[in-house]
Write the structure tokens for this entry.
Amino acid sequence: MDGVVGPDTWSKLIVTVRNGDNGDAVKALQVQLNAHGAGLAVDGAFGPGTDSKVRNFQQSAGLNPVDGIVGPATWGALLGGGGSTGGSGGSGGDTLSQSQAASMLSAAGITWSSSGNCSDRNSSSCTSFDGLRRATVDGAINLKHAVGSCPLNITGGTETGHAGGTYSHGNGYKLDFGMMSCLTNYIHGTFTHSGTRGDGADLWTAPSGNIYANEGSHWDVTFMN
């Protein structure tokens, strides 16, 4: 454990940890907290002392909520690589670069594809994460954790060509996921059918407020938080 965060350690760092957890991800957390002056023993045990230091850090970094839970937003702040690049309104409104978002999604086991095999935000044939909201990435990772072994493949991000509006692809609120029966079964079995959109897409709403629209070839998901 050297505290250096490279591509090989993202798979450990992306794991959400909290009070009561143990293991390498907690050790990595303690190393990063110590880099911010926490003075913790790096023992891999997330106890009251680590919880207190996490909450102190979240408060000092302006994160919301201050809950002691270390997810993507807190990891990003600890690592200093996920600052705002044009977003607003706290950690959930911060936006990420292509490389930052891609690293986090890849580490969580989420794939992506495009007809042009590219990530240029200015091309409608690409799938881009440039300008994606941190909260949207967090929501996608939480969805992956929820569906387990069900593959999640992103087919649409912030690239041009999608409909506009406040809660739009271009503003970093939406991701398209390839249609998979296991994903559809999870959505139907977990969320509430909330109506039909003007274009005929069936809508399903999660308790968090996230909206899942069945567009036939893919699920169009709006991450509201």
